[in-house]
Amino acid sequence: MEQFLLVLLIFFLTVVTIQVVYYLFVFGKFSFAKSEKVAPKHLSVSVIVCAKNEEENIKNYLPLLLNQNYPSYEVVVIDDASSDDTRFLIEEFQKTHHNLKLVKVENNEAFWGNKKFALTLGIKAASNEYLLFTDADCYPATNEWIAEMTSHFTMHKTFVLGYGAYEKMSGFLNKLIRFETLLTATQYFGWAKVGKPYMGVGRNLAYKKEEFFRVNGFINHMKIRSGDDDLFVNEAAHKNNTTISFNPEGFTYSRPKETFGEWFMQKRRHASTAVYYKSFDKFQLSLFYFTQLFFYLLPIPLLALQFEWIVVLSAIAFRYLVSWISLGFSAGKLDEKDVIYWYPVLEIILIFTQINVFFRNLFSKPVTWK
């Protein structure tokens, strides 16, 4: 029995070591990075938004896109076969905004419900080489959004990964959603800083049009309903062409789900694309999540039997200290400090939610983007 517990202890200490390496040397690349103000480039930009039955969001948020403090840009809104007044509203805005372009998408049986098909048409219709993406239910934090995101483009940096935040609202679910968003951003920003970018979010993402055509657009994953953002970044981004933007002026915001069921379905859609990532990216994500899980499971028998309990508790405290500091610095950069106070509870709930998502997606997958 004692030999078994010793093996368990070694396994647990290995798990803690891996977690500490992630939080200090991978996520820490972002968490502890200094914010640098970059001079605006004033490149000609096409802001691309895909909308399907979004009349309320178009009414509320399109004016914020059309009134950016930026000298040369157009807004390309793709109406993906909406059945409400989305198209009508866009046409009304066009009467007073000459930099607004409407791309009309009719139902296509071969690509029904596929956002990538609609986005492809929008990208082809864009007049400019530099593309900036957000969703119809998102809005920029400031009128300097375009200027901030595009300021990070250089001759070699042709991908800019931004932060798509969720509004702060009352309730525990809101904190859980924002904690997951914080953790995800810390991961993809950290790996991008390491030189292994693996994803971005379509709520706030920029790249040059040449990158889209270099990999033939979404052709390699067109049949996968989700992934117009993360799968594309996973395929086309690399250490030499990718940078990040985390200045609050360049954030976007959207309203989070208000019920656990809605959020759970959203997570299932997002998780369904991860299985198509590159092998290394699937490995590093799996390693992080499995060590997260075992960090909570392995101490239970060790502490219950009081086997080297001082070592076990010391390891737990050390991992918590490192992860709390790393995520705390990240939360400061991304204006999510309030969720850190709930960190241990939120992490535990998120871990077991992800396990539920994993098993549910084994048997069925979401099939449409809206």
From TrEMBL:
<keyword id="KW-0812">Transmembrane</keyword>
<keyword id="KW-1133">Transmembrane helix</keyword>
<keyword id="KW-0808">Transferase</keyword>
<feature type="transmembrane region" description="Helical">
    <location>
        <begin position="285"/>
        <end position="303"/>
    </location>
</feature>
<dbReference type="InterPro" id="IPR001173">
    <property type="entry name" value="Glyco_trans_2-like"/>
</dbReference>
<feature type="transmembrane region" description="Helical">
    <location>
        <begin position="309"/>
        <end position="327"/>
    </location>
</feature>
<feature type="transmembrane region" description="Helical">
    <location>
        <begin position="6"/>
        <end position="27"/>
    </location>
</feature>
<dbReference type="Pfam" id="PF00535">
    <property type="entry name" value="Glycos_transf_2"/>
</dbReference>
<feature type="transmembrane region" description="Helical">
    <location>
        <begin position="339"/>
        <end position="359"/>
    </location>
</feature>
<feature type="domain" description="Glycosyltransferase 2-like">
    <location>
        <begin position="46"/>
        <end position="179"/>
    </location>
</feature>
<protein>
    <submittedName>
        <fullName>Glycosyltransferase</fullName>
        <ecNumber>2.4.-.-</ecNumber>
    </submittedName>
</protein>
<keyword id="KW-0472">Membrane</keyword>
<dbReference type="InterPro" id="IPR029044">
    <property type="entry name" value="Nucleotide-diphossugar_trans"/>
</dbReference>
<dbReference type="GO" id="GO:0016757">
    <property type="term" value="F:glycosyltransferase activity"/>
</dbReference>
<keyword id="KW-0328">Glycosyltransferase</keyword>
<comment type="similarity">
    <text>Belongs to the glycosyltransferase 2 family.</text>
</comment>
